[in-house]
Amino acid sequence: xxxxxxxxxxxxxxxxxxxxxxxxxxxxxxxxxxxxxxxxxxxxxxxxxxxxxxxxxxxxxxxxxxxxxxxxxxxxxxxxxxxxxxxxxxxxxxxxxxxxxxxxxxxxxxxxxxxxxxxxxxxxxxxxxxxxxxxxxxxxxxxxxxxxxxxxxxxxxxxxxxxxxxxxxxxxxxxxxxxxxxxxxxxxxxxxxxxxxxxxxxxxxxxxxxxxxxxxxxxxxxx
Amino acid sequence: xxxxxxxxxxxxxxxxxxxxxxxxxxxxxxxxxxxxxxxxxxxxxxxxxxxxxxxxxxxxxxxxxxxxxxxxxxxxxxxxxxxxxxxxxxxxxxxxxxxxxxxxxxxxxxxxxxxxxxxxxxxxxxxxxxxxxxxxxxxxxxxxxxxxxxxxxxxxxxxxxxxxxxxxxxxxxxxxxxxxxxxxxxxxxxxxxxxxxxxxxxxxxxxxxxxxxxxxxxxxxxxxxxxxxxxxxxxxxxxxxxxxxxxxxxxxxxxxxxxxxxxxxxxxxxxxxxxxxxxxxxxxxxxxxxxxxx
Lengths: 223, 294
Hints:
The structure holds two protein chains of two kinds. Chain A has seven helices and ten strands. Chain A has helices spanning 44-51, 74-81, 99-109, 114-127, 143-155, 173-188, 200-206, and strands at residues 2-13, 16-28, 33-37, 59-64, 67-68, 84-87, 161-165, 192-197, 209-214, 217-222. Chain A is globular. Chain B is α+β, with helices and mostly antiparallel strands. Chain B is built from eight helices and four strands, in the order αβαβαβαβαααα. Chain B has helices at 2-54, 70-78, 91-102, 132-143, 156-197, 199-207, 212-257, 267-287; strands at 57-61, 83-89, 120-125, 148-152. A four-stranded antiparallel sheet of chain B has the order 2-3-1-4.
């Protein structure tokens, strides 16, 4: 499902090249739940951005969901992303739209027939336990609820791969546990999950395969 | 999908706020300037073509030809290149016409011992001879006839009117182009503001794999909407100004250039103005481009 071979990524600041990832290689198979951990600045977000082709590696080869990411055309990038659900530390909900509209927005931009939208949005909201808050605006939600809404938005397209970048970073322990439960539920129904977190305690508690990054290098692949 | 794209375009237009209003105003000014000058020049054009149809050249003859020689003379005149038709006017006919023109004062002519008027031929030039150069050539050819004493008539003033028409049209285009350029830049600014305001939507759209067309079409549509609204307002202003001004201007226009009635732009012209405004808006919207994918 995901394969990285000798991936390097460096950012240029003037004439200076700052390495963000160095020679990273690993493989994730369908249905796995993989935790990507490491201190802040270790390269977790950079690595995830490469997976959904928000950036390109300086060197190396990446394959995701059967797409060789090297030289993908823009339309092919859009095709790849339609198969990936992405959530961030910041829920990135649109403030001027209700939770229902935020989730429906994704379906509408992808051309989903209008008659299917309502049912699919409420299915996704039920899956994250948020159907009673459909008409609320993002500002009216707690951080945990906002993150669940973001998960519902990622899920509504039923993607085979979920990429979560520090989804619990802004939450207290109880809310973080709730979100992780929701993500586990998503994984249980067959979605491959790649979850990045700097909270080592969370990573350990999940008891799943863990990739540890240190200064851009993959130093541990356990579980 | 079209409904979604349109609703997003309207949402974007609201977001652009006052800058969008400025853009609409500039498009209105551009289209009103072009439309106003177009209206003027099309009416002057009608006057020019009307006067070209009425142009006559009078060929005065040295002496009244004998009845038997008139057909030969008329044949020579009609055979001259650039002549569409010709009518012989005898000295007696000329005097009768003059008397009719003088009306109650016609009795002064009775004091004359003899008819002082010359026989003449009224020549109507063909359409291709109603330019200054062609008319000069026609006058030269007619002067060369041995029976001809003098020739009266010129198309210079018609041509001057035509030059005024072209000048006004160019001025209109120039003013329209300046306003049009300003309008494009303002629509681009409005769209850039929209791009900034909708950056979160754009980010989400890209992350979920929305086609690039779906991301960009609302921007293009909101530009088109600004152009369309501006152009429609311009047409409404032109119609209102025309309805108000035409009855007051028509007597003056009739006296000066002989056009009894003014006419508004044809439906195709109105459609062209609206299409041009819409295109200006769309072009401005298209010029504002956001971040491209790596």
